[in-house]
Amino acid sequence: MLSYTAGEADVPLLDETIGENFERIVERFGDREALVEASLDGNAAAARRWTFQQLNDDVDRITRGLLAAGVAAGDRVGVWSPNCAEWTILQYATAKVGAVLVNVNPAYRTHELIFVVRQNGMRMLVLAPSDRNSDYVAMGREAAAECPDLTELIFLPVPAGSGISEFTAGEPSSREETTWEALDSRAEEVPASALSERAASLRQGDAINIQYTSGTTGFPKGATLTHRNILNNGFSIGRLLGYTEYDRVVIPVPFYHCFGMVIGNINAFSHGCATILPARGFNPSATLKAVQDFGGTSLYGVPTMFIAELALADFESYQLDTLRTGVMAGSLCPNEVMKRVITDMHMDDVAICYGMTETSPVSTMTRAGDSITRRTETVGRTMPHLEGKIIDAAGLTVERGEVGELCTKGYAVMAGYWDQPDKTAEAIDSEGWMHTGDLAGMDNDGYIIIEGRIKDMIIRGGENVYPREVEEFLYQHPSVQDVQVIGVPDKKYGEELMACIILKPGTEPLDATAVTEFCRGRLAHYKIPRYVEIRESFPMTVSGKVRKIDMREEAIDRLGLHG
Ligand code: AMP
Is the distance from the beta carbon of residue 356 to the nearest atom of ligand 1 less than 6 Å? Predict the structure, then answer.
């Protein structure tokens, strides 16, 4: 039997835009709760809360504000902020206005921000208030000064919560700068009818979102997704989780990634579920407190997040028995962790999702009732309406049980990489198969077992890092002659980065502190190498390729990082 499967097609795909879907849900569940944003001070009574009707009213005001600002369908509007309610409102407002929302990782620094602003010709950037770690306002201004297409900065308000003094929102100081509140007020400038006119002009196949994935060629690539891609993917995941309007989904994963905005928001809202935001960034105790305070029935996370929650000293003190399900994704889950999530967190039906940004994101998922073994050793089977196969180096489908490259086809495959047709053609073949770069096998029941990665990628605490991007950056250091970045095992983050550097003759030796200094403020923290090693040469293959696998093994021995 060959390693090919097609997912079930029992329920038809949704044939509507994200805005149309949301309007239908608001009509059915207008009075039910849609969004809860926990207060920063942990005071449950101070949480901000919206019903579907209230959320839609806020979305429509921002949509009209965007119309008043002259945002056309297809314009790129960036969002650069940790999780907050305004992120959700902007996600739906840009979908209704037909703009392409560009998710910018809040850990990005100017170097990366300027790259993405230029790459997609972004015209507007909505950005978080500055905080202790990130001066978003100053960095946004720097990007606007360098990128003439970026003509508007919108400053988000400081988060709610008493005694919060560590935030500074941007104060508009030019015609190109506006506050979120002022954007909201601009709703008055356009009639409500402008909303329905714009809605009628949008199509399900229109691009609606760009998410940058760290590129193998040294720079991130903008995976471009349509309404059809992400609406149907989100909706299908919720169907397999058995979501109803009584579910309350706790989202500690970031919105800038599909995990937050698709598996989280779109999935939940398309089934009338409430979404609960525990904190701006991941915080294990705030997450469990949000489950307890707001009655979460479903909880998300990458395995390292669940590990951190289970390790809390006061874990036993949280009331978690409202939970019944959830999603774990991003990397493989250790057996013991899965067992504890099911027993100690009451998440009997927790599912494993596997996928990638380029497939909107989920392409395989475990099903209700799957055994613990299936939920730790496999990543489930092909999602409804999608096809999956495993191929060998010649592109032929392999027999069941043999390992090869996993490929995915169907509605969830992205429209392409923004403005990079050659890169798109490398990833999606002429028959529409997305080549994932992951090595996998398929068992006789169609369940997929991930075996490794063909691509040279490091996953550090759920964040993907392509070594090439960090290498390109380190090449800019005046002492660096050559550099290779590898991943080494790490108990806390799964993997950590190591930079192996050959110095230019006559330069001072570099250590980890000097490299960190060089990267700080310019490169996202998770891309900064933890280890630095100075070498005379790199081990090479006969064909002249650096043997990174050997370097990794040597490093593990030297640092004593064996499992
Ligand atoms: P991203 O585009 O950030 O969603 O990352 C996609 C990559 O993460 C995939 O190509 C896999 O290498 C890895 N990945 C995602 N989900 C899983 C999972 N459940 N188990 C193992 N690896 C995963």
Answer: yes
